[in-house]
Amino acid sequence: xxxxSGRSFMQVLCEKYSPxxxxxxxxxxxxxxxxxxxxxxxxxxxxxxPSVLVLNSCGITCAGDENEIAAFCAHVFELDLxxxxxxDWHEVSKIVSNVPHLEFLNLSxxxxxxxxxxxxxxxxxxxxxxxxxxxxxxxxxxxxxxLQELPxxxxxxxxxxxxxxxxxxxxxxxxxxxxxITDNNLQDWTEIRKLGIMFPSLDTLILANNNLxxxxxxxDSLARxxxxxxSINLHKSAGLHCWEDxxxxxxxxxxxxxxxxxxxxxxxxxxxxxxxxxxxxxxxITKLNGSIVADGERxxxxxxxxxxxxELPEEEVPFRYHELVTKYGKLEPLAxxxxxxxxxxKVEVHFQDKVEEMSIRLDQTVAELKKHLKTVVQLSTSxxxxxxxxxxxxxxxxxxxxxxxxxxxYGIRDGDKIYVEPRxx
Length: 425
What we know:
Subcellular location: Cytoplasm, Cytoskeleton
CATH superfamily of the largest domain: Ribonuclease Inhibitor
Domain Ubiquitin-like: 352-421
Largest sheet: 11 strands, mixed
Oligomer: single chain
CATH class of the largest domain: Alpha Beta
GO cellular component, one term: cytoskeleton
Distance between the termini: 86 Å
Mean pLDDT: 88
Organism: Agelaius phoeniceus
Number of helices: 12
Function: Acts as a regulator of tubulin stability.
C-alpha cells in the first residue's frame, strides 16, 4: 500500500510513537524516554520516544515544527530516514539541527540529488559520526561539502550511487575510518587511489560489486596511499584476472583482512585451492573471506603452495614460491593414496582337496557368489556353505551366512581364502 505524500517528520513521529502505537515501557534496557517539553506545548507528555528512531518508508518530505523536534528529540542519537521523499537538504537540516546528540544518520534512497547542499546546511550535521547516503545519488560535490563540515565523521556509506569516477576533495578527511562504496561502477584503479588521498586514516575499504580492473600502482605508492588500511573487500571485482593484483595487496602495511570472492582469477580453482593459494600469497592476513586464518592453516597452505608450483618451469614459478622454499626447504611430493573401495579381489577358493584362484567382484552378494561357484564346486546353492578366512585374522574362518550381504562388507582383499563345504543333511 503506497504511503501518502507530503508528510512531515513531526507528523510521522507523532503517529508512530503515540501512546497507542508505542506504549511507555518501564524497566532496564528498554531504551524508552519521555522528554520534558516546553511549557504550553500541545505535544506535552504525548510521545514515548526511544533514543533510536526508525522512520523509514514513511513518505516524509519535510521537517515540520522545529520547536517540537527540539523538544522531543534532545536524547536521540540514531535516526533512520531511509526510503522517504526528502529532496531538499534544507528540510533535512531543519531536522538534524534540532537533534543535538545525533551520531548516526541514514538518508538512503531519498532523492537528495535534486537539491544543492550548502555549507550552512551541512554545518548542522557536525556531530554525526556515521552517515549513510546509499542510493541517494549524492554528487561528489555534496560529499565534499559534508566532509568539510563533519570533523568527526568516522563511517561513510556511498553505495548504489552510480559513480564511475571519484572527484577528490579539496581537503583530506582525517577522521574517516570506514568507507562503504559497493555497487557502483568504479573500474579504473586511478579512481580508487583518489580515495586513499582523501581518506588517509582509512581502516576499512569495502569495494564489492564494482568492476575494478588491475591494480596499476607501485608497491611504494600503495603503502603511501593507504598507510592505515586494515581491511579491504574486493568481492566480485570483475577485472581482477592475474595473481600480480593479489600480490600487490601485500603492499598495504597494516592489512589483516581480505575478502576476495567471485573474481574471475579464482574461478578455475577448487574451493580448497583458492583458499590455500590466497593464504600462502598473503602472509600478513589473519582473516580471509570472513574466516580466521589459524597458524596451522597458514603452514598447511604454504606447504601446499610449494607443492602446487614445484613441477613448473623456473620462469613460471611465482616469487612467493622461493620465499616459502627458503622457509620450509624443498618438500617431497605427497604420496598419491587411492581411497576408493576395492572393486575386486583375487582369492583362493578351497573345496575338499582342490584349490582354485579366482577373481571375484566385491559389489556382489553372498547369494550371487554362490551362483558363481556352482560350476566350480558342483554343488547347488542351497547345499553350499561358505566360510571366509582373512589372512591376517587370528580367529579362524567366518561363516558367510547372510545371502544378501555384500562381499565388500567382509573386507575381502587379495590373498584371502574362501572355503566351500556341503551342507550336512
